[in-house]
Amino acid sequence: xxxxxxxxxxxxxxxxxxxxxxxxxxxxxxxxxxxxxxxxxxxxxxxxxxxxxxxxxxxxxxxxxxxxxxxxxxxxxxxxxxxxxxxxxxxxxxxxxxxxxxxxxxxxxxxxxxxxxxxxxxxxxxxxxxxxxxxxxxxxxxxxxxxxxxxxxxxxxxxxxxxxxxxxxxxxxxxxxxxxxxxxxxxxxxxxxxxxxxxxxxxxxxxxxxxxxxxxxxxxxxxxxx
Length: 226
Known about the structure:
Layout: H1 2-10, H2 22-48, H3 56-59, H4 66-92, H5 96-122, H6 128-153, H7 157-171, H8 173-187, H9 192-202, H10 205-222
Helix pairs in contact: 1-2, 1-10, 2-4, 4-5, 4-7, 5-6, 6-7, 6-9, 7-10, 8-9
């Protein structure tokens, strides 16, 4: 379900024929983004909000670093839930002032959550491979969001939209990790540390690769062969 949300995010425009009316295109985008927002809200309620109890049983091995993890979670929630709204405002070209302010909120949340993510990655007790996956996620998050900001500052609207899609795909890694890791546990592949490492990398690297293939593939297919 969550992986389908990734695919739907990056194909908002590619699924809409060139002949489709703007109203139909916007309706399709609204349905897709509303579904993604709902999925994110369910994830927050089921997987993120329990950490607000701030109990050792909930945080387990992260108890000594609970405030870093809590900060990472809370700012990640802001990015996760504001992303679909931000994408919709950009696609529909509505309320540009709100779109701009919400963009700063999203960007600030990403920056703060990534900072906490780096600390958690470099201080993890679950091995170097897992920590490097988390650090890679934080780096990809900052790079994609930073490129989106740089593009809009130069009024490169199409590039800004593409980088925002990439950024949100990385944001959704919170959700993907919670799906991938239990599946790896059920499959019995590797040790727990190896499963954590595979989930830490696979939750963002593979969706980002697919996103890039869709974005660039659309451009390739749009050019008629000679």
